[in-house]
Amino acid sequence: MKLVERDAELAVLTACADRALTGEGVLVVVVGESGAGKTAFVEQFLAERAGRARTLSAVCDPLATPRPLGPIRDVADGVGEETLRMLSDAEHALDIFDAVFADLGATPTVLVIDDLQWADQGTIDMLRFVLRRIHRCPLLVVGVAREEVHPAHPMRTLLADVARSASAHLVSLEPLTLDGVRELAGEQTIDSAWLHRITGGNAFFVTEMLDHPTGDLPTTVRDAVLGRTVGLDAEAWDLLNLLSCSPEAIPDLLLPDLGVTLPTLRRLHDAHLIRRSSRGVAFRHDLCRLAVTSVLPPGAEPHLHLRMLAAYEASGRSDSAVMTHHALHAGDQQRIRQSAMAAGSTAARSGAHQQAAEFYRIAMEFGGDLSAEAEAELLELLATEYYLTDQLDEAIDACERALGARKLMNAAAELSADHHSLAVYEWCNADRSGADTHVARAVTVASDVVESAPSSTLVSLGHAFAMQAYLAMQSTDLRHATSLLDRAKEIASMAGDHALTVRVEIIEGICAVIGGDDAGRDAVLAIMRSAPRHLDEIYSSGYTNLTYLDVEQRRLRDAEQLLNVSLPMTVERDLPICRVWQLGARGRLSLLTGEWDDALSDAASVLDGRSAPLARTWPHLIRGLIRLRRNGVGVDDLSEAWALARGYGEPIRVLPAVAALAEQAWVSGQSADDLAEWRSLLRDSSAPGLEWARGEVAMWLRRLDPTVTADDVALPYRLYLDGDVSGAAAEFERLGTPYESALALTETGDDVCARRGLDMLDRIGAAAVASKVRLALRVSGVRTVPARRRRSTLGNPVGLTHRQVEVLRLMEKGLTNTEMATRLYLSARTVDHHVSAILTKLDVDNRRQAVRRGRDLGIIA
Fold first, then answer.
1. C-alpha span between 618 and 648 (Å, rounded)
2. Which positions ≥6 away from 310 have C-beta within 8 Å?
3. pLDDT tens figures, 237-284
4. How many CA atoms lie within 13 A of 694 on its CB side?
5. DSSP 573
6. 260: number of CA atoms within 13 Å, CB side?
7. What is the pLDDT of residue 480?
């Protein structure tokens, strides 16, 4: 296909290549509609740079369930032995990614992956992994994709990374203009305006029309393609039909077994219907495949797919994902089961957990009758993949079915493991009572047979005790947790199991932190420093719980420093459930420190995407409280948080929700019908580790009912409840929590303090609360209640949030919005909003003026 109107895009790609191959790698994604000429565009680029770097080309196939890391397997002949070994032997996807990245970056390389819209999750995750590191090696990665990507496709996450990365670029190929069509038409006698209108500027369609035999011109791509099939013999149509059933290219070595001859290949090539590639014979364009598929004879598919299966098996080089595709369409249950199970295992090991779940589901649903043991094992594998992809309801259903099968088999060890898994799934899904029930059964089942069972059952029992201890810790029942940990520790010592030992030590450290022992925090951090390069679920729980507790116990500076380390790790090391948990912790930190726009941004990152109920309580509280304080609304979010907290029944979650509901009752001035229940919850939660949560509830209840008292609360709340409101305000200010300090100042009875408190409420944007306080002060007889200050007089001194100050400082360094997004682990859109807000608040027209104004005001040095 002749390239027209692509000079500017080609110049961009060439510039990226020049930058990349000198050591500062770049990832480029080329997008456009089907037929826009994306592949021809990239081929032209490669032709112009032939010989300047190692070039590797791969493609993703339109399989219903994609090949795990299919593109990397395509270029296997061009990578090193270590990479090949990892592809077949590695147990962790990130080990594969490390090997691939090291191989690609070892020498100047151009890697092209076509049709990314059909990529599996593992391939997308690998590209995201490479993108985060590509800046330090001579590597250009060019991904080619259709622009019409489904919103739920993993490709969306890659495009989001591209938007905010300084090491990535998006090149969009637009439809041809009328002038472009005229240039392609050249001297041909055709109405270019009509041709442009009928083709919509689609480069492939335009080319097909211009190359069409004389006679009536077709009006659709399908008709244009099928026009090329006129006069073909039965052998040529047989190959076209086989290709239509084979979204992947047909490898050369399969052609003899399929009865394909050289004359047939020549006829189809001369008709511009097929092309040769490194992977074999394929349609010239996917639009050709779709056109031929539309006229496939009824009932022909099963026979064609059986022929493909037989040819692959005869070759000895079959791919389990491709075999699954053909077996499904052939209706061959045994082959479906065998190939889907193998493909699921490969996908899970490659990090393509969505595809792994789909392959296991296919094996279960279409693989025919299974033995009871095989069915239970398959259900357990399926449950694990559902859990890892945050499909908790499906994970629970699959694991419960496996549990039923294990009961019939009286398989004690597996039964215990299933109960343990269900305890984890139910807890993440906000069913604490279900989690308790299952983990108790996990202990009982393993205990009943441990004397006569293999050592693996003993280890399972140890992990069951550790899970019980973890749940007891979440309920702040430290005495029970310690007792259970002693039993788990004894088993870990007997069995010599390192993973169990680490799990016990982390939970012990977190229990110490909850109990107020500062040494516990140091112990957990020491374990984290010794963690393997690829954090697993056990090690990552240390960061997850410690960041939560640092915020809970108001070690706000420590929390910020730790989150700056741990949150990037959750991205780097592919721990999505930990990432959303820590985003909630960072959002709560911003809520406490008065950086409410930043808090809302983190809450939205959790609530607007897929995330387990476990991670959503605080984001709902954050959003509800900020809306309440600003506008007097937020009931829906607070109700949702309360429902989640009640589902857990854990005081460390229930009490913050109670405090939020009490604050809502205070702000709205409505009678608190649940006051008695809230007081009861406060009274019944006296365990160590709840001093901050109890204090917050007690303070808000005191505002609703002057008779409320509470013991064992943290210092600022104790001062408040003892009547030393000024002392409480000072302590809140020392901690760095301006909202609590401001409210306390307005309650001191001192007019000067009240005015200062009001000013602080205005500065952080608590408009609804400030209005309520102003009214209360006037009613109480205060004569000089200041009106709300103008926006221009608020802030630092213009009202920039903490995050906006960070953005302004990065603007001073000359970083682009995408570079700032990468540095701050925000989306590019969020940074755009921050930059716009900064320009508005500083009353300037551009970034240079913003930096100058920030210096003048002392916001930046």
1. 13
2. 257
3. 999 999 999 988 999 999 999 999 999 999 999 999 999 888 899 999
4. 23
5. T
6. 26
7. 97
Residue 89 has pLDDT above 50, yes or no: yes
The tokens describing 376, both together, are 């239970």
- Contact in structure between 712 and 673 (CB atoms under 8 Å): no
Number of Cα atoms under 13 Å in the Cβ half of residue 306? 10
Number of H helices, E strands in the chain: 44, 7
For 772, half-sphere exposure in the C-beta direction (CA atoms, 13 angstrom radius) is 20
**Taking a C-beta distance cutoff of 8 angstroms, is the pair 687, 481 a contact?**
no
pLDDT of residue 453: 64
Distance of CA 49 to the CA centre of its chain: 36
pLDDT in tens, 610-654: 889 999 999 999 999 999 999 999 899 999 999 999 999 999 999
The alpha-carbon radius of gyration of the chain (Å, integer) is: 32
Q: Are 860 and 808 in contact (CB under 8 A)?
A: yes
pLDDT of 299 over the 60 cut: yes
Query: How far apart are alpha carbons 851 and 456 in whole angstroms?
Result: 62
pLDDT band at 213 (very low <50, low <70, confident <90, very high): low
d(CA 539, CA 35): 48
Looking at 765-827, list the stretches that DSSP marks H as alpha helix, in order from N- to C-terminal side: 767-779, 802-812, 817-824
d(CA 508, CA 205): 67
Q: Which two tokens stand for residue 612?
A: 């387990």
With pLDDT > 70 as the criterion, what percentage of the chain qualifies? 97
Q: For 311, list phi and psi in degrees, rounded to 5.
A: -65, -45
d(CA 361, CA 750) in angstroms, rounded, equals 68
Question: What is the rounded distance in angstroms from the CA atom of residue 614 to the CA atom of residue 736?
Answer: 27
Whether the link from the prior residue into 263 is cis, omega within 30° of 0, is no
Residue type at 422 in one-letter notation? L
SS3 654: helix
Q: Provide the 10 A C-beta neighbour count for residue 203.
A: 28
- Give residues with Cβ within 8 angstroms of 134, minimum separation 6: 20, 25, 26, 27, 105, 141, 167
Helix (H) / strand (E) element for 26: namely: strand 26-32
- Phi (first) and psi of residue 395, to 5 degrees: -65, -45
Q: Is 796 exposed, middle or buried (0-12, 13-18, 19+ CB in 10 A)?
A: middle
Please report the DSSP string for 370-433 in residue order.
Answer: --HHHHHHHHHHHHHHHHHTT-HHHHHHHHHHHHHHHHHHT-HHHHHHHHHHHHHHHHHTT-HH
Q: Amino acid letter at 326?
A: H
59-73 tens-digit pLDDT? 999 988 898 999 998
Among 620, 683, 626, smallest CA distance to 655 is for 683
Reduce the DSSP state of residue 184 to 3 states and report it.
helix
d(Cα 478, Cα 135) in Å, to the nearest integer? 47
CB-based contacts of 22: which residues, under 8 Å, 6+ apart? 138
Tokens of 833: 């909003």
At residue 825 the predicted structure's pLDDT band, cuts being 50, 70 and 90, is low
User: Could you give the C-alpha distances from 679 to 510, 659, 672, 687, in angstroms and in order?
Assistant: 28, 11, 11, 16
CA-CA distance, 777 to 795, in Å (whole number)? 24
pLDDT by residue (tens digit) across 698-734? Answer: 999 999 999 999 999 999 999 999 999 999 999 999 9
Q: Do the bridges between strand 280-283 and strand 274-277 make them parallel or antiparallel, or are there none, so unpaired?
A: antiparallel
Q: Which of 414, 467, 362 is nearest to 66 (CA)?
A: 362
Separation between Cα atoms, residue 25 and residue 43, nearest integer Å: 20
634 contact partners, CB below 8 Å, separation of at least 6? 623, 624, 625, 626, 627, 628, 664
Predicted confidence (pLDDT) at residue 791 exceeds the cutoff of 50: no
Residue type, 227: G
Pairwise CA distance, residues 697 & 681, whole Å: 9
The residue-averaged pLDDT of 366-391 equals: 93
* pTM score of the predicted model: 0.82
